[in-house]
């Protein structure tokens, strides 16, 4: 029984570490994509503006993931 609890505890700690790393990655990636879109959108040139518009393909899923991360963190704070 002790080994089961230990394995379960280790799995929970590892899952928490993965979630934290993933949240940090999503936040940094979203920041980089949005700043790139703004910087490219401010330049003159058709190709750069096209690239700025195409960054929405990456920004939208990252926004959804960021919203999920924030909602889980808020729920965690309210529950604890």
Q: Can you characterise this structure?
A:
The protein has 80 residues and is mainly α. The protein has one domain. It is built from 3 helices and no strands. α1 runs antiparallel to α2 and α1 packs across α3 (56-79).
Main attributes?
mainly alpha, 0% strand
Q: What's the topology here?
A:
Layout: H1 2-41, H2 46-54, H3 56-79
Summary?
The chain has 80 residues and is mainly α.
Write down the overall geometry: elongated
Share of residues in helices:
over 70%
Number of strands: 0
In the residues, how many domains can be counted? 1
| Quaternary state of the chains | single chain
Mean pLDDT: 83
Described by strand count, sense and barrel closure, the largest sheet is: none
């Amino acid at each position: 029984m002790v080994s089961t609890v230990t394995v379960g505890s280790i799995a929970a700690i590892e899952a928490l570490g993965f979630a934290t790393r993933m949240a940090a990655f999503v936040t940094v990636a979203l920041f980089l994509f949005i700043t790139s879109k703004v910087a490219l959108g401010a330049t003159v040139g058709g190709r750069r503006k096209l690239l700025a518009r195409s960054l929405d393909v990456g920004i939208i899923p990252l926004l959804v993931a960021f919203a999920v991360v924030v909602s889980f963190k808020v729920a965690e704070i309210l529950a604890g």
